[in-house]
Amino acid sequence: MAPQPSAPPADRSARRPAARPPDRRRAWLVTAMIVTFMVINFADKSVLGLAAVPIMDELHLSNSTYGLISSSFYLFFSLSGLVVGFFSSRISSRTMLFVMALLWAVAQLPVLAVAAVPTLIAGRVLLGVAEGPAASMSMHALYKWFPPERRGLPSALQIGGAAIGTLVSAPLLTWLITDFGWRSAYAVLAVVSLLWALVWWRTGHDGPYDETRVPPAVDSRPVRRLPYRRLLLTGTTVGSIAGAFGAAWALALAHAWLPAYLRTQLGLGPQTVATVISGISGLSLVLLLTVSPLMDALKARGVSSRWSTGAAQGVSVCVAGCAMAAFPFTDGDVVRLLLIGVAFGTVAVAIPLHYVTVAEVVPPAQRGAVFGIVAATGTLPGLIAPFVTGHLIDGADTASVGYTTAFLIAAAVMLLAGASAILAIRPEQDARRLGLLPLATDPEKGVPA
After folding, report:
1. Which structural domains are found in the chain, ordered by start?
2. DSSP strand E in 161-257: where?
3. 70-124, pLDDT tens digit by residue?
């Protein structure tokens, strides 16, 4: 008997099981876990700055030495983000975030064994290695659960976790440092990181919007890839990196030196400093939860990404830069604290927006790698700013003069970075050039011409 002819490809595809609709409840559970992940992330980053004065007093550290310890966190931070980004298409987000959280717990242990400069540096270096990919890879994991048109709010919540981390951790860690000694804060963070890792291993899974792992039964189209050189040299990517660079300079100063500045230069007590830092984080959180959904609404109304996300990213960094330049010369305490809040709180808006804009000019299969590169270059100020600030303080006639010089340098960097972002970010135009949008698409409005 002659063999029966096989069914044509169209018939076979018709019998394929339909893709299951995305699980929205699971999507928001993963979002909550990633927000918590970012809370712990920024608590880990903040603990050294919050404990700066007692650590410097106990170990008799100069400002330069403390600045070196703070900058050591970023020694391999950018390289780690870069390397892990390229492995993001081969390793599940569940595994990557689990390993990162375990390393966070381990990184707190050296200083608990021996409190000295070498153990402080060792712990910060390991923590930097483990946290370098955290923001980009958790954002990548989050994007696997939401389609492009619904990523604004989840992105804001993810970055909002950073603000919540400082908002919540500043008073709690300050209480631990003040009442139980600074080592207790490190011990608590180690336990919390371990607990998160265990819960994530049970609940964290990769979502359906992951084109690197779409099963053939769902989509047999080839995954599109472009040369990384083309992706990285678009104006949108370069401008987004510039905006992130300016924001990261301010954030690095906030983590390393702002608590010490508030205590030694403004004469505030530990709990008052914690309240001020929480207030700054609260401002960041309000802006994140307000601006990102507003950007989504503007896009829904047909406003181009250049103006809805690119301009907002650059303007936020420029506004913060202006406040950074102004507050050292302000006499009134209330006005100065308000300007400090704007200088260090407004830049948070730029972080989710720079991921959103870059995602528009990158094929999803390469998104994790490009996010890693963008994060690596955008966070380089963390390696520079704390160390340079310590040297400026030690080398100036007075600590006040050193701080003022450091803040003016930061303002100049931020204004240049913000202006570059405003001028360079054009997502629709760059996506069209890369072939990611139809040729008939208008580059400014992103709609058919």
Report:
1. 25-208+226-433 (1.20.1250.20)
2. none
3. 888 888 887 787 788 777 767 888 888 999 999 999 999 998 988 899 999 999 9
The number of beta carbons lying within 10 Å of the beta carbon of residue 60 is: 7
Q: How far apart are CA 96 and CA 103, in angstroms?
A: 11
| pTM as predicted | 0.70
Q: What is the helix (H) or strand (E) element at residue 303, kind and residue range?
A: none
Q: For residue 441, what are the β-bridge partners?
A: 448
Q: How far apart are CA 378 and CA 159, in angstroms?
A: 15
CA distance 320 to 344: 7
Q: What is the DSSP letter of 329?
A: G
The one-character DSSP state at 432 is H
In the numeric block, which tokens belong to residue 186? 């490190």
Give the three-state DSSP class for 141. Answer: helix
pLDDT in tens, 207-263: 777 654 444 433 344 446 778 788 888 888 888 888 889 998 998 898 889 998 999
Contact by Cβ (8 Å): 330, 336 = yes
Contact in structure between 341 and 280 (CB atoms under 8 Å)? yes
